[in-house]
Amino acid sequence: PGYPGEAGNWASVTLKRGVHIPWTTTTISFGITAGGTRGSGGGGGTAGGQGGSSTATASGWAGLSATGGLGGKADLSGSSSGNDGKSPGTYNFNGIPYSGGAAATADGQVGNAPGGGGAGGKNFGGAGGVGGPGGGWARAYQ
Question: Looking at residue 79, what is its pLDDT?
Fold first, then answer.
């Protein structure tokens, strides 16, 4: 079987209007990317691809980027160290928990959103699952 994909990464920031972004900025835009590509099965198996980076941007601010998880490598030896696609877990920011996608536990399963790695392929040539798409959250208060 191939190795499972890694989970995406968390990134966070607190922005204060008039300090980090101009008072005139009223929109934060998110660019949420797809998960990494699946690895192929078979004797000449290929590794899975890394997931894209999800971003947040706003006028007057350089932005924030959270990188996608690494793709699982091809295991040509026939013995991987586990098949479950990784979960990014729960991230606590400013006292609020944000949940990442659960682990993908079935052979070749697609990764769970947000940011979960795809499971490795089945024994004897099964392809792995694609990674779960990323996610983004914003909270505004005064």
Answer: 53
